[in-house]
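Deliverable D2.4 — example input (structure tokens):
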């Protein structure tokens, strides 16, 4: 089933996108920082969410991992 139609899969994809963008931002600063608007601005926004809300993102990742493995 597609991740769009399954809510748990959609949340997993969003968390993976946030974590990946936050990880890649220090490595490719010029690529993400020059595209703050438009379609590529989504990656910059996800990187900012991952940096500023990192404790909440970490808790969400742990909860999602627990729910995928045990539920």
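Example output (designed residues):
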């Amino acid at each position: 089933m597609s991740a769009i139609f399954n809510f748990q899969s959609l949340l997993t994809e969003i968390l993976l996108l946030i974590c990946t963008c936050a990880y890649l931002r220090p490595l490719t600063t010029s690529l993400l920082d020059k595209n703050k608007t438009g379609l590529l601005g989504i990656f910059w926004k996800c990187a900012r969410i991952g940096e500023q809300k990192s404790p909440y993102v970490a808790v969400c990742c742990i909860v999602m991992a627990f729910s995928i493995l045990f539920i």
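The chain has one domain: 7-70.
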